[in-house]
Amino acid sequence: MAPRIGVYGFPETARQAGELAHALGVPCHIAELHRFPDGESLVRLPEPMDIAIVHRSLDQPNDKLVELTLAASVLRRQGAQRLYLVAPYMAYMRQDMVFKPGEPVSQTVIGDWLGRCFDGFVCVEPHLHRTPTLESVFVGRPSVALSGAGPIVERLRGDGVSADTVIIGPDEESAPLVTAIAGPLGLTGLVGRKERRGDRDVTVALPADSPLAGRPAVIVDDVISSGETIFSCGRAARALGAASLRVFGVHALFTDRIADRFVAEGFGAPLSCDGVPHSSNALPLAPLLAGAIRTILTL
């Protein structure tokens, strides 16, 4: 008899979990969550499956990590033979070394924690800037780190992006994303240099010979939170003559106030992938995630 396969989601991303289940052609079940007055969580999961695909983005991660651990324990006890975590946004990946004495290597800690709970992982644009692969984080577990470029390419192609458009990334870490977007569209790509002095104190410089004069520009980044990196990059692009600006982010973590500022400063409304629920979501990830899950299930 074929194994029973199902997707399990959580209330804040019920739509995204449902779309993933639909793309895979399997049922979807949404966890029931209860928070006690002291902050503890209770997780209920119906319908045991042989293979459980748990979908949850780990923005605002601390409560979610505990709830995922509880969910994994329930699914194992109910008889799941394999558990896979689809976390479009994976937290704690940027702290991959000790930058100052007394700090943890959070990437290793979270990798070990979740690796004890799940048998495989699918993430989108995790912060693997000095880590070669996602499997280096979740050692011994099949893991797929997906690029968010595909949905952005499809949107730009559907919008009829002009051939003289320049794709801009604000720093070297965005270079793979820029290449993966500019290449399939036959567009020019360029990457800036970022100086960060604090979470909201950022300056982006673009090469002085950047071919931007009179041309539309699209700024892309994996995560948009305070927006300061994008605003600085946009100012640099305008100083070099960019005729217009659009913004795409894979993961949107910014507030409504920041969204209003994008519009007020002439960037238009940023568009993002839907891994993290946000008013800017316009680019569905379900087909991309489903393809990765199918690959893992055949390993």
Automatic annotation (TrEMBL):
Its EC number is 2.7.6.1. It is an enzyme of class 2 (transferase). Belongs to the ribose-phosphate pyrophosphokinase family. GO terms for cellular component: cytoplasm; ribose phosphate diphosphokinase complex. Keywords: Kinase, Nucleotide biosynthesis, Transferase. GO terms for molecular function: kinase activity; magnesium ion binding; ribose phosphate diphosphokinase activity. Pfam families: Pribosyltran, Pribosyltran_N. It comes from Azospirillum griseum. The keyword Kinase applies. InterPro entries: Pribosyltran_N, PRTase-like, PRTase_dom, Rib-P_diPkinase. GO terms for biological process: 5-phosphoribose 1-diphosphate biosynthetic process; purine nucleotide biosynthetic process. Residues 17-114 form the Ribose-phosphate pyrophosphokinase N-terminal domain. This is Ribose-phosphate diphosphokinase. The keyword Cytoplasm does not apply. Residues 164-247 form the Phosphoribosyltransferase domain. It comes from the Bacteria. SMART domains: Pribosyltran_N (SM01400).
